[in-house]
Every structure is written in structure tokens, then in C-alpha cells.
Amino acid sequence: MTQNNQIHNALYLPFERQQWAKLRESVPLTLSEHDLADLRGINESVSLSEVTDIYLPLSRLLNLNVGAKQQRGLALNKFLGRVPPKKPYVISIAGSVAVGKSTTARILQALLTHWPEHPKVDLITTDGFLHPLAELKRRGLMQRKGFPESYDMKALMEFISAVKAGEPAVSAPLYSHVTYDRIPDQYQWIRQPDILIIEGLNVLQTGKDSAVDTRRPFVSDFVDFSIYVDADEKLLKTWYIERFLKFRKGAFSEQSSYFHHYSHLSDEDATGIASKIWDTINGPNLTLNIQPTRERAHLILQKGKSHLMDKVLLRK
Ligand SMILES: Nc1ncnc2c1ncn2[C@@H]1O[C@H](COP(=O)(O)OP(=O)(O)OP(=O)(O)O)[C@@H](O)[C@H]1O
Ligand SMILES: CC(C)(CO)[C@@H](O)C(=O)NCCC(=O)O
User: Fold this and answer.
1) What's the domain range around 103?
2) Are 148 and 225 in contact (CB under 8 A)?
3) pLDDT tens digit string along 58-77?
4) Contacts of 258 (CB under 8 A, 6+ apart)
5) Closest atom of ligand 1 to CA, residue 127
6) pLDDT, tens digit, for every residue of 207-255?
7) What number is the average pLDDT over the span 157-165?
8) For the chain, what is the domain count?
9) First to last CA, the chain
10) What's the pTM?
11) Residue 95 annotated as binding?
12) Residue 162 and residue 291: Cα distance in Å, rounded?
């Protein structure tokens, strides 16, 4: 038995896809054709069986957990005799570059808004908390984008603690994959949602994983339920290259695109460049900084070929 398997057996309940799919049986949630069309709009490559087999049971699990947390809050507030502050339930989604965190997050957001107990579900990505490109260049971090030191962790911690404290409006900076940079002067406002989903490479990282000060609190201290989306590195690299080729035909053709000069490359040359970026930046970041955080998650979703989840591991 590998060390990984041993850790998984000790910490997690494993579910094969079909076992997991059965756990949606009592989901009192039916999706209309219209809802399904909306979900397709998030990513047309996502199969509908993925939604019913994986995401509906997951939304049921999350709904039960949110309910339990809300009940605990009611008891505490009754005991303290105070009006409850409106604090969101926070779900984090971690995993490699190109594993599909943002797609997973958007599907969950869409499904969770259907539950009457928590209709307002906001979503942010930690990409917005990367230092701006000029700052990364100044610090010599262009080959370390996505590594712990490339994020403004102080700003991210201030953001999440303000949201969790129930502040009425908290802003998050926005990131563009087209300009490869933070979007100047544009913010997303988080106004007391019922649930906040926060997705990013670094949401399970602690100071111990990097040179960051270990005495500070971590994102996880403010998270109620954490998910790690997992896949073999071989598949991840393929998905990264496929996305790079897709962007080259679309977003890279915009003048403002950081990769505009790549837009006329042949498939072969573009594949070579994407493969090099993976091998020099995203692959090492996965091995050094992301994968070691996997077993901190409450739930691990393991993807196989074509982005299909073949196993789910749930913390005991
Ligand atoms: N469930 C899915 N089915 C099919 N394709 C998917 C699925 N999830 C993601 N993809 C594809 O995989 C690629 C990566 O997805 P996505 O952009 O969601 O990843 P990410 O983890 O958020 O990446 P990054 O960290 O770089 O922002 C995209 O090309 C996306 O279309
Ligand atoms: C923005 C991140 C860090 C995470 O989404 C990633 O997409 C990225 O830009 N990585 C750096 C190497 C690359 O260009 O893929």
C-alpha cells in the first residue's frame, strides 16, 4: 500500500463514482431544463451526468453542513441574547492550475443558490490577490506566479476576516487571464452572502509551506468546508495545454492579451510553449506547494480522463 493510500484510508471515507451518485437520492432538488441550460453555459464541456452524479450529492452534503452551522449559530446567539451577525458560510476550493477549480466553483454556486436556506452564494478567486504584474516583475517573481510568495497574503487575510466578521461590504480585487494581471481599479463587492465560495491554488496553504510568517492565521481558519480537486499530473498538463490552445484561438487574439504575440503560432509551437510553462512554473508549484496541502481538505474530488470524477474522499 502506498503512503498516500494509507493516509487516505486513515482520514477519509472513499466513494466510487456510482456509490457517491446514490447519495443524491433524497435531494429535494429538481433541475428544470432551463437550470440545466444555465449550467451548460458555465462550461459546455461539463457533462450532465457529472452534475447529477457528483454535484447534486455534493450540494446536498454542503446544504446539511450549512444547516448544522446555522443551528449552532442560533444556539450561541440565544445563549448570548444577541441579534445574530450575518456571517457567511465559507467553502474553499483548492487544486492545481487547470484542474477545473473555477468550473467546479461555478457549478456549486449555481446549485447551492437553489436551496431556500442559502439563496445568496458569492464566488471569488484568489487570483485577484496575486501581486500586480509590475510588482511581480520588480520582485523577480515572474517565474513564480502562483507560488505562495506571489500573493499579497496580507490583503487576502484582511479580505476573508472582514467577510467572516459579517462586514456589510468587502471588496476583492479582480484578475484577468487575458492581460495576465490584476484589473486596475475594478473590484468585486461581497455584501453579506449566505455562502462565500473562495477558489484558488493557495486556499489550503499555511505559512509553514513557504517563507510566509507562520504566526499569522491562515485562510483555512476562516473556512467552514474545504474541497481539493485532484487529478494526475499527466492529465493536468494535458488540460493546461488544451486550455492554452483554446485561449490562443480566442482571448490571445485580443490586442490587450499578454500572450497576444503567441496568437499566430502553429499548434505545434504553441503546444511546446505551454508545455514549457507547465514544466517550469505550474508543475513545480503543484509538487512543492499545492499537492502537499491536499490531505487538509474535508473532501477530495478525484478526476480522471475527460474531467470525469471517478472517486470522492470524504473526511471521516
Ligand atoms: N468538468 C469539466 N468538464 C470538462 N472540461 C472542464 C471541466 N472543468 C474544467 N474543464 C476545462 O479544464 C480547463 C481548466 O478549467 P478551469 O479554468 O475551471 O481551471 P482552474 O483550476 O480554475 O484553473 P486556474 O487555476 O488556472 O484558474 C478549462 O479548459 C475548462 O474548460
Ligand atoms: C493565475 C494562476 C497563478 C492561477 O490561476 C495561473 O493561471 C498562472 O498564471 N500561472 C503562471 C504560469 C502560467 O502562465 O500558466
Assistant:
1) 3-315
2) no
3) 999 999 999 998 888 888 88
4) 133, 178, 179, 180, 181
5) 27
6) 755 555 556 789 999 999 999 999 999 999 999 999 999 988 888 888 8
7) 96
8) 1
9) 20
10) 0.94
11) yes
12) 28
Check pLDDT > 90 for residue 276. yes
Q: Does the beta carbon of 201 sit less than 6 angstroms from any atom of ligand 2?
A: yes
Backbone angles phi, psi at 79, to 5 degrees: -60, -45
Which cell numbers in the block locate residue 312?
Answer: 470522492
Ligand 1: centre distance to CA 55 (Å): 15
If phi > 0 it is left, if psi is from -120 to 50 it is alpha, else beta; for residue 288 that is alpha
- Residues in the chain, how many? 316
Check if 241 has its Cβ closer than 6 Å to any atom of ligand 2. Answer: no
- What whole-number distance in Å separates Cα of residue 51 and Cα of residue 82? 40
- The single residue listed with the C-alpha cell 488540460 is 239
The residue whose CA has the least distance to atom 9 of ligand 1 is 100
For ligand 2, whether the C-beta of 146 sits within 6 Å is yes
User: Residue 83 gets which letter from DSSP?
Assistant: P
- Ligand 2 atom nearest to CA at 180: 9
CATH at 240: 3.40.50.300
Mutation to probe ligand 2, out of 97, 124, 127 (largest number of atoms < 8 A from CB): 97
Is the Cβ atom of 102 under 6 angstroms away from ligand 1? yes
DSSP state of 73: H
Which is it for strands 170-176 and 195-199: parallel, antiparallel or unpaired?
A: unpaired
Is 246 a known ligand-binding residue?
no
**What's the grid cell of residue 53?**
452524479
**CA pair distance 200, 94, nearest whole angstrom:** 5
Ligand 1 neighbour 271 (Cβ under 6 A): no
